[in-house]
């Protein structure tokens, strides 16, 4: 469970951080108000860039805490600038790196419940990671990338997936 | 290795297939030429919808075959309609379901080489799945979803991630 969660999260949040750095640099070079990117959406009823970053970080702090059986840290969701979004990513990485392999390995069968409005979903640890956290995490990081690409920031696939 | 690959691929390709069905139905209801969606892109230098589906299916047939140590099936990449894209997804699902857990489990340490133009990348099986196949697969399915959302097809997050 550990190799499929924490190291993957750390790498993908690092890639997201680098993507946001490129967007901030692009805004500065082109004299575009950074809030144009922070508030950009791909459709009127999709979330803006800032919310994509908030949800991506929520997913991984929630996953690390729930698999380890510890309390999920609460964040205020008040980020409105690139430095604030970077700070959120930074504190998320610090938190998930504080969770050890020993705490997470063997959590395949741990029961995990999530509330979605009035509905509650129940998972075992492995399905929670593979069927909920990973697809959603990749979704929100990809949408963040796509919002910026759609708005002209020069990014490539390697910025998303990292070097290998 | 098996639970993190084949069942995940089958579920996500099923979600992608259902998303494309909704797009085809939307095109028919609104009397929009389906090729408008098939050729739609989020940026001029991003791939259109059809190529997103081709790459997503390439990733999973390549992964299933390489982890099992068998030949990767070759496809022609000539799909230009929704039924053709659905047929490609269907034959991909049939292929990956023909690969058994016994063939894939214990492939964590299998050496896998991929060519990117003139460059070659070397992975062990686990890193190939976790750091290459899954992030790229989710990327292309998310971009397919985002292209359609951006073009007004009524989809929600549950169409992407499936029910749980």
| Element pattern of chain A in H and E | HHHHHEEHH
**Biggest sheet strand line-up of chain A:** 1-2
Number of strands of chain A: 2
What is the arithmetic mean of pLDDT of chain A?
96
- Give the number of helices of chain A: 7
Q: Find the biggest chain interface.
A: A-B, 32 and 32 residues
Radius of gyration of chain A: 16 Å
General shape of chain A: globular
Briefly note the structural class of the backbone of chain A.
mainly alpha
- Percentage of residues assigned to helices of chain A: 55-70%
Strand content of chain A: 5-15%
How far from one another are the termini of chain A? Answer: 22 Å
Biggest sheet record of chain A? 2 strands, antiparallel
Oligomeric state of the chains? homodimer
How would you characterize the overall build of this protein?
The structure is a homodimer of 164-residue chains. The first copy, chain A, is mainly alpha-helical. Helices cover 61% and strands 7% of the residues of chain A. The first copy, chain A, contains seven helices and two strands; from the N terminus they run αααααββαα. Chain A has a two-stranded antiparallel sheet. The longest helix of chain A has 26 residues.
Give the gist of this structure.
2 copies of one chain form a homodimer. The first copy, chain A, contains 7 helices and 2 strands.
